[in-house]
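Translate structure to sequence.
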């Protein structure tokens, strides 16, 4: 106090502070470190709890502590209850998969993802799979050694021309999918992006299911000696998957069954012999 030319008695009276505080150095309790560690652990585990609930949990754990001490440590450590997050509804399907956006019609929601495999010489190649979530049809499998965001745009642009622009496009959070060029291009053509939550592959359940079938029914049983061979065999399997393979969720029908060639062949006229027999009166 003398440093500022003010007597200790006067300064304490003005501040409403007892003079003994100037003579005794504050001492922390011996168990402060352990208590702080337990408070931080509980706050981490129960992110929506404030210091009052944390105090109750500490008492249940055997701590003899009051709410003021917990509040002091709470503020000292900079802990606080995070702002409430907006609710996000989840739609659970019969097969246990969870999606935030449920397809309602063809071309409503497309999803796409990467699958990786190797040729016989050990070199990696990647597949970009695009699936219509409503019909379960595999729209495209792009096979190449490397696939970048420009390849994603190239595949989607071809599909948009052939099938029209879908309402939403669901994808992973990988670098190929969140590339700025891809997002801007999808928005520019009139579609909406629907990225899944990180670490939640079940939200992209349709494409994940297709990927597992592709690996189980084809990739695990084939040896590809070249990239060209892989492209031909994989495309053949995709055609079979769309047009012939029974799909349990579609009543054991294929996603896009093959239709008869158009125009259909006209019915052939009956032969003269058949007509004569048919027109001959029956003898009774």
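Result:
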């Amino acid at each position: 106090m003398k440093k500022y030319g003010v007597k200790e008695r006067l300064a304490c009276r003005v501040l409403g502070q007892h003079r003994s505080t100037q003579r005794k150095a504050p001492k922390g309790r011996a168990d402060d470190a352990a208590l702080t560690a337990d408070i931080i652990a509980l706050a981490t585990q129960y992110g929506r709890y404030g210091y009052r609930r944390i105090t109750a949990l500490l008492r249940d754990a055997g701590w003899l502590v009051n709410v003021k001490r917990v509040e002091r440590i709470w503020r000292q450590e900079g802990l606080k209850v995070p702002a409430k997050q907006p609710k996000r509804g989840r739609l659970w399907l019969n097969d246990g998969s969870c999606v935030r956006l449920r397809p309602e019609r063809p071309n409503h929601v497309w999803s796409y993802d990467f699958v990786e495999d190797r040729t016989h010489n050990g070199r990696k190649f990647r597949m970009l799979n695009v699936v219509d979530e409503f019909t379960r049809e595999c729209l495209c499998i792009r096979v190449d050694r490397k696939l970048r965001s420009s390849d994603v745009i190239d595949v989607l642009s071809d599909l948009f021309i052939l099938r029209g622009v879908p309402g939403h496009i669901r994808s992973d959070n990988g670098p190929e999918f969140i590339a700025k060029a891809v997002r801007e291009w999808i928005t520019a053509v009139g579609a909406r992006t629907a990225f899944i939550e990180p670490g939640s592959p079940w939200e992209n359940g349709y494409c994940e299911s297709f990927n597992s079938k592709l690996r189980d029914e084809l990739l695990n049983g084939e040896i590809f000696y070249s990239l060209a061979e892989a492209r031909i065999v994989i495309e053949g399997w995709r055609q079979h998957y769309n047009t012939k393979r029974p799909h349990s969720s579609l009543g054991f029908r294929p996603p896009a069954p093959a239709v008869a060639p158009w125009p259909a062949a006209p019915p052939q006229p009956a032969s003269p012999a058949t007509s004569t027999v048919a027109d001959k009166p029956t003898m009774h």
